[in-house]
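Side project, low priority. Logging it here so it doesn't get lost.
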Amino acid sequence: MKKITSFTIDHIKLQPGIYVSRKDPVGDSMITTFDLRMTSPNEEPVMNTAEVHTIEHLGATFLRNHPAYGDKIIYFGPMGCRTGFYLLLAGDYTSQDIVPLMIQMYEFIRDYKGEVPGASAKDCGNYLDMNLGMANYLADHYLNRVLYHITPDRLVYPD
């Protein structure tokens, strides 16, 4: 069976960044899938499910309520390997195009206090698996380590 594209990326060379994972035409439109890599695969510990779940809730809430991008959000959610997230946007974008949006989102997550949106038994199938403190920490770490001074090599997958 042929490998899917995401399994052909060299995860030994891959570092935290923002990468275009794929572009898919849908009718007359394009959907751009981004790889928001927060940790270095196979080098650093993966994120625990509680903070991943919290980032997912906060990130999805922020993105779907964004005045410029809210109607372009197709999906935001975690990678199974727990090293980052996928963001699917309606439109043809580059990694550089969304750097400001990702800075805004991760600042929102870093600074968020209070009850996590959707973290109730009525709204979520696993609402107890949340860790806001670690989500705040990881967002701050990603901002300072990558997003605030992102370089071209962190915007294009390594060869």
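Brief comment: The first strand starts at residue 17 and ends at 26.
Revisit when time allows.
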